[in-house]
Amino acid sequence: MKVILTLLGTFAIGVSFIFATNEKYLIRRDPAAIRQSYDFTNLRGTALEVAMRDRIVSQIEIVKNEEGFGLSLGNFAFKADNGQDFFSCQYFSKIIMVFEAEGVAVSGSKPTMEVAGPCQSSEDLTKISALMIPMSKLMLEKPQDGDINFNEASLSLHFLNLPDSWPTQWNLIGIRMESQQQQFIIDRNEIAQIIGQQLLITTE
Q1: Cα distance between residue 198 and residue 106, in whole Å
Q2: Strands of the chain, DSSP E
Q3: Any idea what DSSP says for residue 6?
Q4: Pairing state of beta strands 69-74 and 17-20?
Q5: To bridge 176 with a disulfide, which of 96, 101, 187, 197 should be the other Cys (CB 3.0-4.6 Å)?
Q6: Is residue 147 a contact partner of residue 138, using CB atoms and an 8 Å limit?
Q7: Can you tell me whether residue 167 is helix, strand or coil?
Q8: What digits encode the pLDDT tens for the residues 158-188?
Q9: H helices of 8-131, where?
């Protein structure tokens, strides 16, 4: 499957950079972001929330394979309210990403895809492992609203307002990390502000 990454629009905060390999596309907000530490155990309150959002989004990596694509996120360490230090996936057990279809609407509403799966750190602990979305399998199914589960990957997808054919362009509009205690939410405006542009993925 061919996956194309497009960054739409320009914002005042700066220009995003895309680093491409054969299998991955890595987004950086600016060179300073590359050098940022992911240890936020000394931060509290609003400063911690800002650092977490920036780390998660500025380090987004688009991973593709023959079946589809996934987004890995920036990992981080922080101190919880109980004073204990955690890596993100030691505290948050679930990740939910929300995508909105581009260029299509059903009864005035854009189709949405909600992807949910386990929060797992990469081997080097700098990344939260990608939730791989099997678009090739999905496109063999008839588009319809509702839930689809992939047990082998503990992955679930929820679709709403789907048209008669599968959309091929998806814009990331939300990220949610969940634990038993709380949710950490990043909305579409925050995503666009951090990377400087909208993140649009085209699958063909």
Answers
A1: 22
A2: 3-8, 17-20, 24-28, 61-64, 69-74, 77-79, 85-87, 94-101, 112-118, 127-133, 146-150, 155-160, 169-178, 183-187, 198-203
A3: E
A4: unpaired
A5: 96
A6: no
A7: coil
A8: 999 999 999 999 999 999 999 988 999 999 9
A9: 31-35, 45-58, 88-91
